[in-house]
């Protein structure tokens, strides 16, 4: 049934595929770049305060899993919205792509700080 909806709503499927690629690509990029660095990793840094949060590689995995779940739930909601109101389905898909882009930028920032 989901495959039938995907063939009908290709734009939604493409946006969510891009979202998943941003999240998975950001995580694997961070994992490969940071696997040889001694822990703890700097997860959040502020110019005014300094280091706000430290963590491990496992915390990066938790960020990726949480983002993956959010994208998956939004995908199913967007498919249902697309049947009823096309604008809101595409709006949720675009917002999810924006969310995934921010997660990717977050992984890049973590790499940069460490």
Write the layout of secondary structure elements.
Blueprint: H1 2-8, H2 10-34, E1 41-46, E2 50-55, H3 57-84, H4 86-113
Antiparallel strand pairs: 1-2
Helix pairs in contact: 2-3, 2-4, 3-4
Explained architecture:
The structure is a single chain. The protein has 114 residues and is mainly alpha-helical. It has one domain (2-113). It is 77% helix and 11% strand. The chain has helices spanning 2-8, 10-34, 57-84, 86-113; strands at residues 41-46, 50-55. A two-stranded antiparallel ribbon has the order 1-2. Strand 1 and strand 2 (50-55) form a beta hairpin. The protein is elongated. The N and C termini lie far apart (44 Å).
What keywords describe this structure?
2 strands, mainly alpha, 4 helices, 114 residues, elongated
Condensed summary:
The chain is mainly alpha-helical and 114 residues long. It contains 4 helices and 2 strands.
